[in-house]
């Protein structure tokens, strides 16, 4: 833990680079769908709804973590932020699995909605999602490697605010995209 504490920027950069590479490979469709076993049709059909549920729960844990730190409850804050990170990992794993196996979901709504609402929302969602990686990694690494008394002297609080904002925007816009793809049309 001591070694990691002194290399947070480097670890953040490495984790971010690996995450970006994974995202690009999956989104580009470069992962052969045959690489993974295909879940039964009923399971594949439920994945978007499960991902939306994970997103909603993650929003709750992030907001709970923010409330906890404002109340001075550091242990609860730490627990909720680690849970948020685990939910983030679960979300990415399941979503990337679905993307690798079946590909992206086509927008079935009106063309005018797709052009002026859906696509701009999707692009902004993707940009903020990419910004989320370094902010979350940095805040998490500083938070778990730095002794509690030394945290005020770090950039943890600032990075945490950025990470929480990016997370909330990403999960929130993801829920809107989910609704547009699976509930409205």
TrEMBL record:
Keywords, comma-separated and alphabetical: Membrane, Transmembrane, Transmembrane helix
TM ranges: 12-31, 43-66, 78-97, 117-141, 162-181
InterPro entries xref list: DUF420
Superkingdom assignment: Archaea
Name this polypeptide is given: DUF420 domain-containing protein
């Amino acid at each position: 833990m001591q070694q990691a504490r002194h290399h947070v920027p480097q670890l953040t950069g490495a984790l971010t680079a690996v995450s970006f590479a994974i995202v690009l490979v999956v989104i580009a469709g470069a992962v052969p769908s045959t690489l993974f076993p295909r879940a039964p049709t009923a399971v594949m059909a439920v994945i978007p709804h499960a991902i939306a549920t994970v997103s909603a729960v993650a929003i709750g844990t992030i907001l709970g973590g923010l409330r906890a730190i404002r109340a001075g409850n550091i242990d609860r804050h730490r627990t909720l932020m680690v849970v948020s990170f685990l939910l983030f990992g679960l979300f990415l794993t399941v979503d990337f699995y679905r993307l690798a196996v079946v590909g992206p979901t086509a927008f079935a709504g009106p063309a005018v909605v797709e052009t002026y609402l859906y696509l701009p929302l999707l692009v902004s969602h993707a940009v903020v999602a990419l910004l989320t990686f370094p902010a979350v990694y940095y805040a998490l690494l500083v938070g778990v490697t730095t002794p509690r008394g030394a945290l005020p002297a770090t950039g943890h609080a600032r990075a945490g605010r950025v990470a929480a904002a990016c997370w909330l925007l990403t999960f929130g816009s993801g829920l809107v995209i989910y609704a547009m793809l699976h509930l409205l049309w």
